[in-house]
Amino acid sequence: MGDWTGTVPTFAAGAKLRGVDMATLAAIDTALVTGWTTWVPTLTNMTLGSGTQIAKYRRLGKAVDFRWRFVYGAGSAVGTDPQFTLPVAAAAEYLTAVEAPFSGRYTDASVGASVAHARPIFFTSASNILLYYFSAAATIASITSTAPWTWTTSDSLNVWGTYYTD
Question: Domain spans of the chain?
């Protein structure tokens, strides 16, 4: 196996390790070590009020992992076809996606239940995500102020996933 000297090898500028340049290795190290970065999405047809929004992402090359949470509070509002923006614009191929690429859960806190089949999202632009849910008839339906229920304090929308940039 060889002797370990405890010295980490160094590389000259522009050198590659097994085909990967040092800038890419540094980006991977940063994403894995420092973890997630906060971003502030722009909300459309939603008002935060005194609610809570948590939005975190990490990027490795062209892959972006994200998680977003909106918890309804006093002064919050959810209207018809709510949307939020991604931290980094998605690749153009997502603009023509037929199926929703991310997972999600929408929770009605007053009854302690979740819409188990809630799924976001069809891209409406390279950076906006339009939220949907599956109705009782298992068809995609628009979220409104009263669907899938009337939104009240502590109800939440949660979305997470991985996508690629151009």
Answer: 37-164
User: What do you get for the CA distance between the two ends of the chain, in Å?
Assistant: 42
Question: In tens digits, what is the pLDDT along the chain, a chain of 166 residues?
Answer: 555 555 655 656 655 566 667 777 777 777 677 779 999 999 999 999 999 999 999 988 888 999 999 999 999 999 998 999 999 988 877 766 555 568 888 899 988 767 655 555 556 677 888 887 777 666 778 889 998 889 999 999 999 888 888 8
Q: Are 21 and 43 in contact (CB under 8 A)?
A: no
State the Cα angle at 9 between 5 and 12, rounded to 5°.
Answer: 155
DSSP string of 34-89? S--EE--PPEEEEE-TT-EEEEEEEEETTEEEEEEEEE--TT-EEEEEEEEE-SSP
Element of type H or E holding 22: helix 22-33
141 near 147, Cβ under 8 Å? yes
CATH code reported for the domain at 37-164: 2.60.90
The amino acid at 158 = N
